[in-house]
Amino acid sequence: MSHSIDKDLLREALEQAHERFCTDTAGKNADYIPYLASVPSSLFGIAATLPDGDTLTVGDCDYSFGIESVSKVPTALLAMNQHSAEAVLDKIGADATGLPFNSIMAILLENDHPSTPLVNAGAISACSMILPTGSAEGKWNAIRNFIEELCGSKVEVIEELYHSESATNFNNRSIAWLLRNYERIYDDPELSLDLYTRQCSLGITARQMAVMAATIAFGGVNPLTRREVFKSNLTPRITSMMATVGFYEHTGDWLFSTGLPAKSGVGGGIMAVVPGRIGIAAFAPPLDSSGNSSKAQKALGFIAQRLNLNIFNAIDH
Ligand code: GLN
Do the Cβ atoms of 10 and 145 come closer than 8 Å? Predict the structure, then answer.
């Protein structure tokens, strides 16, 4: 039984997925953040990184798009790496809310019991946990450096997106203060909110996102740079969180259909991690009703089936 993935088969699967879904017109760009509505809807890229660091790409894999909620993954990992998985479980939790990503109801319902760093409330809370406490600049450097180590390359904030998002994030502002009310935020609420907004506004390419996925898949060692970015015992922690809530209220349907731990963002990116085997990213701006990229979901589902990537499958890897 071999776990390694044949490069030719992978290349073929990526190309077929791109060809099959590039004309798909389902979904629409996020528009509650004005910048995102203006991103060309036809962009579509798929990238996959293997254990040797080789990244195969098809389509628009060098276009820098808003990382948005995919950034919740590196920040949760960083919080676990700086403190411990147990500290994050205790202060935030690892349970799905079953509700939309920006749900205030979820906070009211679970006020005595935190939820997960992969929805907005938990992500703002995770930003508040990042060290050094109280230093906006120090915390931001820690988050950005960590993402750069995961990707093996530089990332920059898309300033227009950051301003667009900061000017319209009233719901997230309420979340930050509600967390304060329940003592579930561990630094200044405004500082934590701004960090969250900034991390969501980072530009990333599908190629970079695939390398980040692969670093997570390979136990924290970046396959490009060979640097150890985080403790290897955190891979099962973060992938279980992604599997539990990566697609918000559609996570169960996604996991049932594909068996892939993955995380979506309203910028149109989806990052999928198959532990020990491969990291894959897909990007296309039009979203379904839960804020998950329609085309990226279809492409990843197709590739998972072609390459037998379902992590729950007991046979024939
Ligand atoms: N920055 C966005 C928000 O907070 C991220 C949401 C997402 O990608 N699901 O609304």
Answer: no
Q: DSSP E strands: which ranges in the chain?
A: 45-49, 55-59, 65-66, 203-204, 262-264, 269-274, 278-283
Cβ contacts of residue 300 below 8 Å, gap of 6+? 17, 46, 258, 260, 262, 270, 272, 280, 282
Instruction: For residue 252, report the distance from its CA to the centre of ligand 1, in Å.
Output: 20
**If one looks up domain 7-306 in CATH, what number appears?**
3.40.710.10
Q: How far, rounded to the nearest angstrom, does the alpha carbon of residue 17 sit from its chain's CA centroid? A: 21
> What is the mean pLDDT of the segment spanning 289-293?
92
| Closest residue to atom 2 of ligand 1, CA basis | 68
Cα separation, 65 vs 42, in Å, equals 13
Structural domain spans, the chain: 7-306
Q: What pTM was estimated for this model as a whole?
A: 0.97
* pLDDT single digits (tens) 5-22: 999 999 999 999 999 999
8-state DSSP, 19: H
- Residue 66: name the closest of 42, 38, 47, 46 by CA: 38
Q: Please give the distance, rounded to the nearest whole angstrom, from the Cα atom of residue 239 to the centre of ligand 1.
A: 20
